Amino acid sequence: MSFPKGFFIGAATAAHQVEGNNIHSDYWAQELLPHTSFTEPSGLTCDHYHRYEEDIKLLADAGLNAYRFSIEWARIEPEEGQFDQREIEHYRDVIRCCRANGVEPIVTLMHFTSPVWLIRQGGWEAESTVEYFRRYAAYVTEQLGGELNYICTINEANMGLQLAAISRRFQLMAQQAAAKAKSAEGTVQVGINFEKMMENMKFAAMENAQIFGTPQPHIFVSSRTLEGDALVFRAHKAAKETIKALYPDMQVGITLSMHDLQALHGGESFAEAAWDEEFRHYLPYIRDDDFLGVQNYTRTQYGPQGQLPCPEGAELTQMDYEFYPEALEHVIRRVHEDFRGNLIVTENGVAVSDDSRRVDFIRRALQGVENCLNDGIPVKGYCHWSLMDNFEWQKGYSMTFGLIAVDRATQTRTPKESLAFLGSFAR
User: Fold this and answer.
1) What is the pLDDT of residues 281-315, one digit of tens each?
2) Nearest to residue 256, comparing CAs of 235, 217, 283?
3) Are 125 and 118 in contact (CB under 8 A)?
4) Closest to 50 (Cα-Cα) out of 382, 413, 427, 422
5) How far apart are alpha carbons 425 and 427 in whole angstroms?
6) CB of 223 within 8 A of CB of 163?
7) Integer Cα distance of 182 and 50 in angstroms
């Protein structure tokens, strides 16, 4: 395989999952509730906040030429309207470290976590959030825009509707059989413990009310209404307009979580409806974006009765996804039918304990990307998830997605074979 000059081969992280001690965020607050749905708290995570130079050097030494990471809103604006200049300088240092190592920084402004104060004011169902996010995006861009070429506004902006759908399915399945219910968790591309959430619902409601002022806080990764879904994309548009006003040449996009939706005989209408919800209905909001971030991990199949479980005998990952790297090529091709702009694979990866399976996954996924490039589809880069084993949200530290292993007792980094394998395509 070969890729054109200027093609990005990189890795991705999210601030809350790797930095550690993100004490002003909604996730940190929820992790510490007595009846939390989190397997364990994030704590120090990988201490990437202090060890970013080591981590970026490992990435660069392996040959990778891009690093997608997020700026943590809860660090930048820990209290409403109070911006922390020290934290902006920290992220400036991260960006400059990338540059010093020949790595293109691709920044995400909001990767799931929000400041606690935002959630107290209604979170991702409140109209005020559009302006709050625009103001935050303006501040970051004013401070750092001169050192960046690529900004993703919001990570997996369509996640709320996916969670709403799976929540409905989970409750139905839980009523039918608790044993079957757990399998539903493997159909959404984020670490969620629906079973534990159901068990803790009554207690968590009281505890959330104490922290957020409401028993059902509207964090970003929670079931979203149709109005909230539209609000997220209006926040994206407001941020994009502000960024482009400051830096017209900045490449601005959004990232979406997308499955390879496959229809077996009789399942065509279900698959089409799912694609409309997952992607197509967002086109009016993103049609003029500079790029779209494609994020894919697996496929979903549909039959005459709707969504099907993984095929019998299929290889499953630690997340209960089907091991199916060919999904990425299928999604890129499907997206390109309607979105004619540039595409960047901002996340694609696999949670496995056997790194040889990750190597195989990368090989097959990149073959699909090359096939798309050969057919003239404008894919500009591939960022593997994740640079290092990290905090997989409600699933904790047991899900190993990383190209680098992290001993959390000592914070020792150990590159895996997959890191060098991925880097060989950039070299």
Assistant:
1) 999 999 999 999 999 999 999 999 999 999 999 99
2) 283
3) no
4) 413
5) 5
6) yes
7) 37
Tens digits of residue pLDDT in 186-221: 656 666 666 666 667 778 888 999 999 999 999 999
Tens digits of per-residue pLDDT, 54-90?
999 999 999 999 999 999 999 999 999 999 999 999 9
Q: What angle do CA 229, 212, 73 make, to 5 degrees?
A: 60
Residue 356: count of CB within 10 angstroms of its CB: 12
Measure the CA–CA gap between 308 and 172, rounded to whole angstroms.
15
Active-site residue, from 156, 207, 278, 370: 156
**CB-based contact 42:30 (threshold 8 Å):** no
Q: pTM here?
A: 0.94
- Say if residue 386 is preceded by a cis peptide, omega within 30 of 0: yes
The three state secondary structure string of the chain is CCCCCCCEEEEECCHHHHCCCCCCEHHHHHHCCCCCCCCCCCCCCCCHHHHHHHHHHHHHHCCCCEEEEECCHHHHCCECCECCHHHHHHHHHHHHHHHHCCCEEEEEEECCCCEHHHHHCCHHHCCHHHHHHHHHHHHHHHHHHHHCCEEEEECCCCHHHHHHHHHHHHHHHHHHCHHHHHHHHHHCCCCCCHHHHHHHHHHHHHHHHHHHCCCCCCCCCCCCCHHHHHHHHHHHHHHHHHHHHHCCCCEEEEEEECCEEEECCCCHHHHHHHHHHHCHHHHHHHCCCCEEEEECCCEEEEECCEECCCCCCCCECCCCCECCCCHHHHHHHHHHHHCCCEEEEEECECCCCCHHHHHHHHHHHHHHHHHHHHCCCCEEEEEEECCECCCCHHHCCCCCCCCEEEECCCCEEEECHHHHHHHHHHC
Q: Which of 404, 414, 417 is nearest to 11 (CA)?
A: 404
Q: Mean of the pLDDT values across residues 22-42?
A: 95
**What count of Cα atoms within 13 Å lies in the side-chain half-sphere of residue 203?**
11
Compute the distance between CA of residue 46 and CA of residue 17 in angstroms, rounded to an integer: 8
* 156: annotated active-site residue: yes
Kindly calculate the radius of gyration of the chain based on its CA atoms and give it in whole angstroms: 20
| Structure tokens that stand for 391 in this block | 């905090």
Question: Which CA distances in Å does 384 have to 228, 250, 345?
Answer: 29, 23, 8
Instruction: Report how far residue 327's alpha carbon sits from residue 298's, in angstroms, rounded to the nearest whole number.
Output: 6
Q: Please give the backbone phi and psi of residue 291, each rounded to the nearest 5 degrees, phi first.
A: -155, 165
**In the chain, what are the domains?**
8-426 (3.20.20.80)
